[in-house]
Amino acid sequence: MRTDEIILVASGDLRLSANQTCWPAQEQLERQVTMAIQKFGRSVRRGHSYDAVHKHGFIHSQRHGIEVFRNIPPEAPLVVVEAVWQYTHHVLPGLTSHRGPILTIANWSGQWPGLVGMLNLNASLAKAGVPYSTLWSENCTDDYFLARLKQWLNGGPVAHDDSHVHALSSVAIPSAAERLGTEVGDNVRTQKAILGVFDEGCMGMYNAIIPDELLHACGIFKERLSQSALFAEMRRVSQHDAQSVRTWLDRKGMCFHTGSDPSRDLTDDQILEQCRMYVAALRIADAFGCDAIGIQYQQGLKDICPASDLAEGLLNNVDRPPVMDERHERILFEGDALPHFNEVDECAGVDALITNRVWKRLGLDPETTLHDIRYGEEYGGQFVWVLEISGAVPPHHFAGGYAGAVSERQPPMYFPLGGGTIKGVSKPGEIVWSRVFVESGRLNADLGRATVVELPKAEVERRWNCTTPQWPIMNAVLHGVSRNQLMARHKSNHIQVAYGNDAASADTAMMAKAVAFRKLGMDVSLCGVQTA
Which of 188, 331, 424, 504 has the highest local Cβ count within 10 Å? Predict the structure, then answer.
């Protein structure tokens, strides 16, 4: 190994179509990173070659990654460069045993998206106890990026500002929030709760799996379910029961953008299959007594049925199509949301469970969901984040509810058998954001406050077009947390959100939720400005 040489690797998708489509963006970012490193007198060598047969240069499987790392000197300085969504398990085996310094880099772009992939990788490395540094940039030429790249190349860790992070123990908590949070936490620990997990490890998200012993200490247990059981139950749902869900949605004013070509259009048959999944999920959750459920979908069901996103968003809404048990004797989970954690992210599942219980105790609307931290830009003198997820957002989060929601076909690159999303623009208001994560062998939680802002229609459309226009969007301004602070600290690609009625109620809910997390044994931090 040359002493001035940096090894570059790139983890990609498991899906060939995604890797081929996204490769040009990756090539561009790698050129920018290489030029930046060369400015400091160092050279860059790819740790794996472009594959002329597959027409991309990504590490595309766990086995491929293991083979790549066999040929990388274990002490070499290593950069993991990501312009795309990536599967962390492709590179985690090699990174866990790598002894040289590791730097993760993403492009500041919402296109595919590398920011989301890098945040997932960072969170997985943190859970695995692998030291790393991290950076992001639009074109790798800005001062913030270059100054910190120089730090890393000179052998030091990359330093970011974390002054926005405050341990809960250092914060004065109102007595009412202390009391309510303690009651919720005690109830979960003593009465116990069940997360229904339809297969773990969606899309290589090692960070999204909570070890059982950590969950058990909280009084929360997994009911391990198979997605094959969900598909089998879908086959048992009658045409009448599926159609009744679709009819209910039509009457609520939800719009479905349908066509005749199932390979590229959303079809009525796809929608009915999604309605069957919704019914089947509720029936299985009822049968196993689940308090929340998570469907993996993307690396199992994607090859045999339409996307799960329509079902997921409906489950997270209190006002949703009624579903009877198989004997048509009772309505399942009547008057309640059944919290669903998208992509079977168990950290989000715990978060959704506690959010649901705290919000209901406060008389607040308990609808909650996770979003990807997708992208963000300055607008009107403030930094406005683009938060997006592939359809699991409850319609109550939209202005107009169901009448403000449309369903569009999922992109064929990711979803070959189609299925629709629940697309809409999140309504203006005050929210609590949070993330449960695993680090140093313990459960942790970060919480903060944000305001969802209303942007002009043209600006919303522009943001959609530079991300994924089929997906629901939330435009949010975080309180007291800058772009770079969130990127450096956040231990997930996902962020949990729930609305308060106003700033004061959102503050109270955040504090009570933080106390409930602490009561479950988590290390809790509040991030940014915390009071109204």
Answer: 424
pTM of the model: 0.96
Question: Which H or E run includes 26?
Answer: helix 16-38
**What is the residue-wise DSSP string for 318-339?**
SS----B-TTSSSBTTTTS---
Q: Rounded to whole angstroms, how far apart are CA atoms 394 and 388?
A: 13
Q: Tell me the HSE value of 438 on the side-chain side, using a 13 A CA sphere.
A: 24
Tokens of 322: 């009624």
Domain boundaries, the chain: 5-153, 175-527
Query: Is there a contact between 37 and 145 (Cβ–Cβ < 8 Å)?
Result: no
- φ, ψ for residue 84 (rounded to 5)? -140, 165
Of 33, 12, 13, 45, give the one whose Cα is nearest residue 137.
33
The predicted-structure confidence for 259-293, as pLDDT tens digits, reads as follows: 999 999 999 999 999 999 999 999 999 999 999 99
> Per-residue pLDDT tens for 154-183?
999 999 999 999 999 999 999 999 999 999
In this structure, the strands spanning 292-295 and 368-379 are unpaired
Q: H or E element: which one contains 224?
A: strand 220-225
CATH 3.40.50.10940 for the 5-153 domain, yes or no: yes
Q: Which residues, other chains included, contact 477 with Cβ-Cβ below 8 Å and sequence gap of 6+?
A: 382, 383, 384, 385, 450, 451, 453
Peptide bond into 395 cis (omega under 30): no
Name the helix (H) or strand (E) containing 177.
helix 175-191
AA letter at 38: Q
Query: Distances in Å between the alpha carbon of 184 and those of 376, 418, 489?
Result: 34, 40, 27
Residue 52, φ and ψ in degrees, nearest 5:
-70, -25
Instruction: Indicate the pairing of strand 382-388 with strand 193-198.
Output: unpaired
Q: Are 364 and 511 in contact (CB under 8 A)?
A: no
The Cα–Cα gap between 9 and 69 comes to 9
Helix axis angle, 143-153 relative to 16-38, nearest 10°?
Answer: 80
What are the structure tokens assigned to 499, written together?
Answer: 């609305």
CA–CA separation, 506 and 499 (whole Å):
7
CA distances (Å), origin 526, targets 335, 445, 446:
32, 8, 6
Residue 79's H or E segment, with its range, is strand 78-82
Q: State which fold the 175-527 domain adopts.
A: L-fucose Isomerase; Chain A, domain 3 (3.20.14)
Using 50, 70 and 90 to split pLDDT, how confident is the model at 530? low
Quickly count: other Cβ atoms within 10 Å of residue 180's Cβ. Answer: 22
d(C-alpha 259, C-alpha 292), whole Å? 34
